[in-house]
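Sequence, please.
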């Protein structure tokens, strides 16, 4: 039984990778053949094409050309450096830039889910860990773990591994892994606070006194800090990645219009002229508030450290977004909520089964839509 959860999750993930890859390829085939003038390509190329869209082009440019920043315009400094650096490294082994990006996700996504299941088994029983793993593996936006050329899989793998090491008492390695993770996404405060509070809580639960070394998690923000130093040296502005969010097209500038989600209310509630867009934005908002609603149950079931982490990792992007777009994908980083969900649904098997079925179907639909170049997150 000790290995059954991990083996089951590995099998589920393998099937998900194959089916989602096929769905994304089918979407790419449809999109590619809208133009009869497009050249004939090999069948296997549709898989790569299916997983490369939207922000993938930014990572490609950074990997091949480095960073650029033009104040007031969309610029690549908005994207943190770890993922494109790894892409550049994998390129040296032979794959092209797009193949490298997809391969990294195909490696990191499944590993993140396996590490998550191992982490969950440290905090609960094998059966609940399995349910938590299934909830995360079949969460609709987990398709970003199964091939999409985005940084989410790499980031979540590192963060989950960091907390796993922390739970095992390996503080220094946990902080080191977390420091690397904060070079991948602009959510360092959540990682720092989560690790710090959990470490202090972990020591207190064992009746041990806190020492200076227990505050080592503050160093996990070094990856974030190094990127800011790079921006300062290269462009003279350590906050360029924040300021560029207000550029035309992104329009995520800080202010009451953004904080109060005026744009979301206009496009979803007051004047939903595009029903497809309204549904998409409503879905992202739904998952955001569901995750926030699980913060307090997470505190009760898993402790203050994970509650603080979830609140910060969800709250920071939710506060800064104008319309919740992308939040469904960002919530992959709030991995403790999947274990909280599994714990809450232990006595509600039908609800759990329903969630898994809906999630599995949604995974395939979103994979196809991503490949067909629909904007989903």
């Amino acid at each position: 039984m000790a290995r059954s959860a991990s083996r089951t999750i590995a099998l589920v993930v393998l099937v998900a990778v194959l089916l989602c890859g096929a769905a994304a390829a089918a979407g790419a085939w449809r999109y590619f053949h809208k133009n009869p003038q497009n050249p004939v390509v090999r069948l296997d190329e549709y898989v790569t094409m299916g997983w490369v869209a939207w922000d993938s082009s930014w990572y490609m440019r950074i990997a091949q050309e480095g960073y650029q920043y033009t104040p007031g315009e969309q610029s690549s400094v908005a994207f943190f450096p770890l993922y494109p650096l790894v892409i550049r490294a994998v390129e040296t082994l032979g794959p092209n830039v797009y193949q490298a990006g997809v391969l990294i996700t195909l490696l990191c996504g499944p590993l993140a889910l396996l590490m998550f299941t191992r982490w969950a088994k440290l905090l609960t029983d094998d059966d609940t860990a399995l349910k938590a793993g299934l909830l995360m593996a079949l969460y609709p936006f987990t398709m970003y773990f199964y091939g999409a050329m985005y940084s989410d899989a790499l980031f979540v793998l590192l963060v989950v591994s960091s907390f796993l090491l922390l739970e095992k008492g390996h503080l220094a390695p946990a902080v080191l892994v977390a420091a690397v993770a904060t070079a991948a996404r602009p959510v360092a405060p959540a990682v720092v606070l989560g690790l710090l509070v959990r470490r202090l809580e972990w020591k207190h639960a064992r009746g041990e006194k806190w020492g200076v070394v227990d505050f080592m998690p503050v160093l996990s923000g070094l990856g974030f800090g190094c990127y800011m130093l790079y921006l300062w040296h290269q462009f003279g502005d350590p906050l360029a990645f924040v300021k560029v969010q207000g550029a035309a097209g992104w329009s995520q500038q800080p202010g009451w219009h953004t904080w109060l989600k005026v744009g979301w209310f206009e496009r979803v509630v007051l004047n939903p002229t595009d029903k497809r867009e309204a549904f998409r934005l409503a879905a992202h908002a739904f998952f955001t508030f569901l995750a926030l609603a699980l913060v307090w149950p997470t505190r009760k079931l898993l402790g203050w450290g994970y509650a603080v982490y979830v609140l910060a990792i969800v709250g920071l992007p939710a506060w800064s977004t104008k319309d919740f777009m992308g939040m469904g994908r960002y919530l992959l980083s709030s991995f403790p909520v999947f274990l909280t969900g599994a714990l809450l649904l232990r006595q509600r098997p039908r609800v759990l089964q329903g969630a898994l079925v809906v999630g599995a179907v949604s995974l395939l639909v979103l994979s196809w839509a991503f490949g067909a170049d629909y904007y989903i997150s």
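The first helix runs from residue 4 to 32.
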